[in-house]
From TrEMBL:
Class of this enzyme: hydrolase
Phylogenetic lineage: Bacteria, Bacillati, Actinomycetota, Actinomycetes, Kitasatosporales
Family annotation (Gene3D superfamilies): 3.10.170.10, Neutral Protease Domain 2
Stated name of the protein: Neutral metalloproteinase
Organism of origin: Streptomyces mutabilis
UniProt-listed Enzyme Commission number(s): 3.4.24.-
Length: 314
C-alpha cells in the first residue's frame, strides 16, 4: 500500500469541518493535527489524516472527537467521540487507604447506580475531558499488562456503593487514585503543567500486577500508564514519592524527551527522584531544605540499575 497522500493535510483539515456533522455541532472547536496514519481494514488498510477536535457539545459536556480523513479521496473515513464518560457523572465517594485512613475521593457514578474510581473533577476534565482512572490487573503478570493503552481485560475499579474498601484498598487502587490526584495538582499548581502530556490527557494507573502470581515488588511508567505491584503485601502506590516518581517519567517523556540511555537515563532518574521527593515533602509539610526531607524518597525505581550501568559504560 502506498503511504503517499493525494490529499494535503490542509485540505483534509478543511474537510473535517465541512463534512463531519459531529464536528459541526462542537462549540469552541480546537483542531489539532495528529499526522498520517493507516486505519486497519480487510482491504489492507486505509491511509488517513488524523485530527483531534476538542470543544463542548450543545449540553456543555466535553467533546474530544477523533476524525480520520481518507488521504486519497478526502472523505471522512472514521469519526468518534473519544470521551467515554457520557454515561457517568462526577460524584464523591469514600476511599479507605492502605493505612486505614478514610478520605473523600472524586469518583464517577454510572447510570446503573454503581461507582468507579474515575476522577472527573480536575481542571483537565473541563479543558480536554481528561480524567484520572484506576484499574485493577487482578494479579495478571506485569509483562502482560505493560506497554500501550489499558486493554479490555483490565477493568476500571468499581463498587456497588460510594465506598471503596476491601479489594479496592488491598489492591492499592485507592492509594493510586488519591496519589495520582495529588501529583496532578502539584504539576498544575507548581509548574502550570496540565497532566502527564501537558494537554489534559487522561491519566491511567494499573495496580495489582504480579510476577507470575508472586508479589511484583516494583512500579513503572510504561510509556502510556503507571503500573504498580506489591512489596511484602503492601501496594507500591501507597508512596506519594513512588507515584510522583513514575508520573514524572511520563512528564519527562512528553517534554524533555530524554532517551532512557546513558547520561540522559541518569538525568531522567534524577528528575523523577527530585519531583517524587518534592511532592512527598510538600504533602507532609517538610521544607526541601530540612534535613528530614532526605528521609523520604528512598524508593528505587526499576530503571535505576539500568541507568547506573549506562553511566558506567559512558
Ligand atoms: Zn525511575
Amino acid at each position: 500500500m502506498s503511504t503517499t497522500p493525494k490529499v494535503t493535510e490542509a485540505t483534509a483539515r478543511q474537510r473535517v469541518h465541512s463534512l463531519d456533522r459531529a464536528v459541526a455541532g462542537v462549540d469552541g472547536a480546537r483542531t489539532e493535527a495528529q499526522g498520517l496514519t493507516v486505519l486497519p481494514g480487510s482491504d489492507g488498510g486505509r491511509l488517513a489524516w488524523h485530527f483531534t477536535v476538542r470543544g463542548a457539545a450543545a449540553d456543555g459536556s466535553p467533546v474530544r472527537q477523533e476524525v480520520f480523513v481518507d488521504a486519497r479521496v478526502g472523505g471522512i473515513a472514521l469519526s468518534y467521540n473519544n470521551i467515554d464518560a457520557t454515561d457517568a457523572v462526577p460524584a464523591e465517594g469514600t476511599g479507605v487507604r492502605m493505612d486505614g485512613v478514610e478520605e473523600r475521593i472524586a469518583v464517577n457514578k454510572g447510570t446503573d447506580g454503581s461507582y468507579t474510581l474515575v476522577d472527573s473533577s480536575r481542571d483537565m476534565y473541563d479543558t480536554a475531558g481528561g480524567q484520572i482512572r484506576a484499574y485493577d490487573a487482578a494479579r495478571k503478570n506485569y509483562l502482560d499488562v505493560a506497554n500501550g493503552p489499558v486493554t479490555e481485560d483490565v477493568k476500571v475499579v468499581s463498587s456497588h456503593g460510594d465506598r471503596f474498601d476491601g479489594a479496592a484498598t488491598m489492591s492499592g487502587a485507592v492509594d493510586a487514585h488519591v496519589n495520582a490526584g495529588k501529583v496532578y495538582e502539584y504539576f498544575k499548581n507548581e509548574i502550570g503543567r496540565d497532566g502527564i502530556d501537558g494537554k489534559g490527557g487522561t491519566i491511567h494507573s494499573v495496580v495489582n500486577v504480579s510476577a507470575q502470581g508472586r508479589d511484583y515488588a516494583n512500579a513503572f511508567w510504561d510509556g502510556a500508564k503507571m503500573v504498580y505491584g506489591h512489596m511484602d503485601g503492601v501496594p507500591l502506590s501507597v508512596g506519594l514519592d513512588v507515584v510522583g516518581h513514575e508520573m514524572t517519567h511520563g512528564v519527562t517523556e512528553h517534554s524533555a524527551g530524554l532517551v532512557y540511555l546513558n547520561q540522559s537515563g541518569a538525568l531522567n532518574e534524577a528528575i523523577s527522584d527530585y519531583f517524587g521527593n518534592a511532592m512527598e515533602t510538600a504533602d507532609k509539610g517538610i521544607a526541601m531544605s530540612d534535613p528530614a526531607s532526605g528521609l523520604v524518597g528512598e524508593y528505587l525505581c526499576m530503571h535505576r540499575r539500568e541507568a547506573a550501568r549506562g553511566v558506567r559504560a559512558a
